[in-house]
Amino acid sequence: MKNSVTVHAPAKINLALRVGSPRPDGFHPLNTVFCALDLHDEILLDEAQELELEMVGCDLAVDDSNLGLRAARALQDYTGTSFGSRITIDKKIPVAGGMAGGSANAAGVLVGLNELWELGLGAEQLHEIGAQLGSDVPFSLLGGLAIGTSRGEDLVTLRPGFFQSWVLILDGEGLSTPAVFGEYDRLNPEEHEPASVDELVTALQGGSVSDVAGLLLNDLAEPAFQLRPDVREVFDSVAGRGIAAVLSGSGPTIALLCESDKVADVVAGQLRNEGRTVLRADGPAAGAHVVRSS
Ligand code: C5P
Question: Which residues are catalytic?
């Protein structure tokens, strides 16, 4: 047993998110391309008798619905251990922003407690536990750039042809993922498979960031805009500032892809001056990983 472990767990964006009609279990089949960003939550796991959780940097209630806590319990159940830990999650990823902040916490806790409790679980076992916690948790573990199918948990890693510089435009309110999927079904009642992401995958492995312009397509954008017309207005007003714009996951965060990190810094500064809340992030970045262990 270790004394203390620190983990970084990344935010993600979906470069494309193509959605099919719901399966019998209610989940939607997806063809998606995930990219992990160098914007991460820091998770500190200290040795303790019981499981305790503190969230720093956000006003999220700590209750049984917290994915970090659920991940710790799932790991106890899977391994039959009754070890505890004082878990502190310092949130930097926007809450309910469509950037897998909750999934990052689940992934980070799995990786961190595997180290703290010296469980010796491999990536496949963590993936299996993670997939039961949420569709995006396996990607939060894997990181990098990857194609996701099924609910998003079947992953194939891609070799990135170039780094991506992003400006993220945040929204104070958050959007509920099930509500956005529900609106998607209302707008698309006919039976259908998710569209292909092959063209984007080819472009991402090439040499030029400008080749992906026009290929960043998110089928959840229209339903999210229906629920939040103000987000559409922001999207339309900022889209021309980068090479391409895409709603991240189920929104409401808007991600602007820029030509270079320098251009992204300038665009972020301009948008800040115009009163927008923005973050700069680059990708692809690593999945949830231990940065300190003692
Ligand atoms: O898997 P996760 O718990 O993150 O999903 C949250 C909600 O998003 C699900 O309850 C479901 O309503 C919706 N969802 C979906 N199809 C997916 C992923 C998520 O309908 N592939």
Answer: 12, 136
